[in-house]
Design a protein that fits this description.
Blueprint (H helix, E strand, L loop, with lengths): L7 H14 L4 H15 L5 H12 L5 H44 L6 H26 L3 H15 L4 H17 L6 H10 L17 H12 L6 H15 L5 H13 L7 H33 L3 H6 L1 H29 L3 H16 L5 H17 L2
Length: 383
């Protein structure tokens, strides 16, 4: 059967929608992407999706945004790469900029507690369904199942995400070379990595919050940060609070909170901070700076994915990275669930959402997210 062509408008429409409705952080974004591009549209196979997810995890920057950029390139070439990334980032950046304006004008953020109360449990159900489906595709052998369990244990112990991915790749490579290899030395190395910071931040020379220094600092952070929004917090604090004293600790925490509660990439925290530093132009400079490395890194690495898959050894490493990525996603989901399911109402929402998603796998999860957000907002309005 001939594959239907994907227009740039198709790509833009999908990622504008996801940029507006994809609450819950990177793990939820991956789950929603899998539903949209694999299940509903058939743009990628499960195996292709996993390969792009593994490749996104191996480079610094916002993982889910880089996965979006990979998908855009795969379906629309270089124009698709730009359109997909921009359309996913833009809605969130505009929302965050509006919240930053309200924050500066009124000294606080608009209330979002009710919205999040309803949305979070549905997001947990969406992620669990994606983990179930992706796990079936990624775990191709007993050895990869063992690698997944080892990665799960290491992640639960607090080992850095990059080290967990490295262990997953190394163990899978070992199995492709010989039937069995003792992983003890690899695990020892991984434990050692947990004692080492993920990266060091070079000294910046900027002395004021001008547009060019703002752009350079956020571009440097975007090119160096592996891991979650919590890792991003460490880099932002080192640069903006400690080194340059441009912002207070409370302003930084408020910015990170906005990045967590709005849909789309968590890295739009930079938009909020840029607005505080230099108004609208500062928000644009910070947003361009933190996301530009993701576009460059995907553009450089994407052509290598087919070559990696064609090589027996490199393909084995990618298999290991894929199952390790799912293990990291599972641990993050457990952490999210503890803050999302807090009473019988949220438990019921999660249970009903999960039942619907598993019963009707092609259901558009955006409707569930929107409905749950409305219910949460109504609950808070009348309590």
């Amino acid at each position: 059967m001939t594959e239907q062509p994907t227009t740039l408008w198709d790509i833009a429409r999908l990622f504008l929608k996801l940029g507006t409705t994809a609450f819950g952080g990177p793990a939820a974004h991956v789950a929603m992407l899998e539903r949209e591009v694999v299940e509903r549209r058939g743009w990628l196979t499960e195996a292709e999706f996993l390969d792009h997810l593994g490749a996104s995890n191996l480079i610094p920057g916002p993982t889910s945004t880089e996965l979006v950029i990979h998908i855009g390139r795969r379906r629309g070439g270089w124009p698709g790469l730009l359109v997909a990334g921009a359309c996913f980032i833009l809605p969130a950046a505009l929302m965050v900029a509006a919240l930053a304006w309200a924050y500066v004008r009124y000294g606080k953020m608009p209330a979002v507690a009710g919205l999040l109360y309803g949305v979070k449990p549905v997001v947990i159900a969406v992620i669990l369904q994606a983990l179930w489906k992706l796990g079936h595709s990624a775990i191709k052998s007993r050895w990869l199942a063992a690698v997944a369990l080892i990665a799960l244990g290491l992640s639960a112990m607090g080992i850095s995400p990059l080290a967990v991915l490295a262990v997953g790749g190394a163990l899978a490579l070992a199995a492709s070379v010989v039937p069995w290899r003792n992983p003890a030395s690899i695990l020892t190395w991984a434990r050692a990595q947990s004692l080492v910071p993920a990266a060091t931040v070079a000294t910046a020379t900027a002395v004021s919050a001008g547009l060019w220094p703002i752009f350079l600092i956020f571009a440097k952070i975007g090119a160096m940060v592996f891991g979650s929004g919590y890792v991003l917090l460490v880099f932002l604090r080192a640069e903006l609070v400690e080194r340059h004293a441009w912002l207070t600790q409370q302003q930084l925490l408020d910015a990170v909170a906005v990045g967590q509660v709005t849909p789309g990439p968590v890295f739009t925290t930079a938009t909020f901070l840029g607005y505080l530093l230099h108004g609208t132009t500062g928000a644009i400079a910070a947003t361009l700076g933190i996301f530009l490395p993701a576009f460059v890194l995907v553009a450089v690495s994407a052509p290598l994915i087919p070559k990696i898959r064609a090589s027996r050894s490199a393909g084995a490493v990618l298999d290991g990275v894929n199952v390790a990525s799912l293990a990291l996603m599972a641990v993050v989901t457990c952490q999210l669930a503890r803050s999302a399911i807090v009473d019988w109402e949220t438990f019921t929402l999660a249970l009903l959402s999960g039942a619907l998603l598993f019963r009707f796998p092609r259901m558009n999860s955006a409707w569930l997210v929107a409905g749950a957000g409305l219910l949460g907002a109504l609950r808070y309005a009348f309590v």
